Amino acid sequence: xxFLGLGICRAAIVSVLAFQICGTAADTAxxxxxxxxxxxxxxxELRAILGVPGxxxxxxxxxxxxxxxxxxxxxxxxxxxxxxxxxTPAALLLNGIQIGETVPIPxxxxxxDFVSFSPSGGSAVLISRASGRLQVIAGxxxxxxxxxxxxxxxxxxxxxxxxxxxDAGSVLLSSGGTVYxxxxxxxxxxxxxxxxxxxxxxxxxxxxxxxGDPGTGSVYLFQRLAAGNVAPLLLASGLPGLGQxxxxxxxxxxxxxxxxxxGIWSVNVACGAVGQLASQVNASKLxxxxxxxxxxxxxxxxxxxxxxxxxxxxAGTVFVPAAASRAQHWHLQ
Length: 333
Hints:
- By secondary structure, this protein is mainly beta.
- It has no helices and 28 strands.
- The strands form seven sheets. Strands 1-28-27-26-25 form a five-stranded mixed beta sheet, with no helix packed on it. Strands 5-6-7-8 form a four-stranded antiparallel beta sheet, with no helix packed on it. A four-stranded antiparallel beta sheet has the order 9-10-11-12, with no helix packed on it.
- It is globular and about 55 Å long.
- It starts with 15 loop residues before the first strand and ends in a 13-residue tail after the last strand.
């Protein structure tokens, strides 16, 4: 796989660290760094995760703009896309425990059913069944602009999943049996046949993407070649329970959730070496927190949160106790 230019293959990460994050809310906001945020999408609620591995708590719910009806956190959690009373999306800047300004997204569809962010959060795909539109937004969060506005009727099928690159120039869509590359005019090219709706994740700052087939437990790499050709390449197989995929900040490792048990797969992008990282909880998500290699992996009402992170060539999980108050009303997005 020399075309990736990612250097010599290293062994997959297998070392696992485990810490408990604990503390009380009494000494929260003034002297604690922010690891990230916990969000309930609708009805919207946002809490900061305050502290460092070994000592952290949830903040009290943060004040959101009036009439906010829905909230979706972007990777890196520097902002969230919110919907107001009229359902029009906007970018809400997150400045520590203080909510920042709201930046309108001109031309965005109202009440999108689906929002997918690029790895850095600089671009996003919005899909609205009611409006019959698929939109690509670039320049997030400070200067959002609509770069593509596609009639869904032009697509072969209604997409079950979508992913966009950081430069907003590449969009991959997946139905139940096919992964497509979408052109700026809504035209599509078949990239890969899959057994079920694929997991898709672009590498940060790249047009290379990982595609996971949950039915076969296989991971492929996609790269657009010269003259518009596409080249999916089998990277790894034998990953039963393949779930969500996310890349490390340097794009060298893929993390893949295991839907069948407590664990996370690691796949080396350069050579396909696979490792399985033990976890104390089933990872139901891979939501990128403020650090590029730190992810929210599990939570629930009245339950603690679990965070997965990379530390050098090792990986670890940390535990955050459930919020002491109003815990029954929130969960992590």
